Amino acid sequence: MAKKLEKKIEGTNVTLTEETLKKVLTYDFTTLPKEIQIKFGPFGLGHKLGDAAAGKVGQEAIDAINKVWTGLMAGDWSVRAPQGEKVSVKSLQDFYMAAQGKEKSIARSLLEKLGVKIPDEVPPAA
């Protein structure tokens, strides 16, 4: 699914472009009432830090939040939380080769559905 909105921030202006109609909307943060501006700082911080923890739990979430906070404190707006672990085809194949019994049967079925080549197995010597 394509993005529905393109967002650009320049200075205190936020420009949104609605992609279907190509309608461009620009809003200046400084024109908001002061009490709304005051609430936006903590709201935005909570959102940015919360995004860092998306899809993570426990210590991994805490580490991700702290990494973004440290970056912000250093003046780096673009700092991101570390990405989660990636699953490689090789790691799936290794898991399959190490599996036994019912687990191996389930793993084979899943790998086949994913289109992952099942490693050749050497039958045990007689």
Blueprint (SSEs and pairs):
Layout: E1 5-10, E2 13-18, E3 23-28, H1 34-52, H2 58-73, H3 89-98, H4 101-114
Antiparallel strand pairs: 1-2, 2-3
Summarize the structure in words.
By secondary structure, this protein is an alpha+beta fold. It has two domains: 69 residues, no CATH class; 34 residues. It contains four helices and three strands; from the N terminus they run E-E-E-H-H-H-H.
Task: Give the structure's gist in a few sentences.
The chain is an alpha+beta fold and 126 residues long. It has helices at residues 34-52, 58-73, 89-98, 101-114; strands at 5-10, 13-18, 23-28. Strands 1-2-3 form a 3-stranded antiparallel β-sheet, with no helix packed on it.
Q: What share of the residues does DSSP label as strand, in percent?
A: 5-15%
Lateral strand order in the biggest sheet: 1-2-3
What assembly state would you assign to the polypeptide chains in this entry? single chain
Give the helix proportion (percent range).
40-55%
How many strand elements? 3
Order of helices and strands: EEEHHHH
Q: What is the overall shape? A: elongated
Poorly predicted residue ranges: none
Q: Can you give the mean pLDDT?
A: 87
The termini sit apart by: 54 Å
| Count of discrete alpha- or pi-helical segments spanning 4 or more residues | 4
| Main sheet properties | 3 strands, antiparallel
As a whole number of angstroms, the C-alpha radius of gyration is 24 Å
What structural class do helix, strand and pairing data support? Answer: alpha+beta
Number of self-contained structural domains = 2
